[in-house]
Design brief:
Number of helices: 3
Shape: elongated
């Protein structure tokens, strides 16, 4: 009996992250293109969120929070970023 390749599902999740990130980029660019205080605030927020997200993941990695298998680490890393991207999409879409 053939086993299911766990990387196939993970690849789909990475693809979905790319789609969601693309929509967030578009929403952010529209907000920044409008200019004003809201644009400046969004640009600053974008930078601080990116730094925060990578530092959180790095800390989790160093504490062993991503597991011991390559697949597990990749899955948890994707989930970490998808939560951040999804929250931004929800926030930017509701404005």
């Amino acid at each position: 009996m053939r086993r299911k390749n766990p990387w196939v599902g993970l690849s789909f999740k990475a693809w979905m992250l790319g789609l969601e990130a693309s929509s967030v980029i578009a929403l952010r660019m529209m907000k920044i293109a409008a200019g004003g205080v809201a644009a400046e605030t969004e640009a600053k927020r974008m930078i601080s969120e990116k730094l925060s997200a990578v530092l959180e993941l790095q800390s989790r990695t160093l504490r062993g929070g991503l597991g011991v298998t390559p697949h597990g680490a990749a899955a948890k890393s994707l989930a970490h970023y998808r939560r951040k991207v999804r929250a931004n999409r929800k926030r930017l879409s509701s404005v």
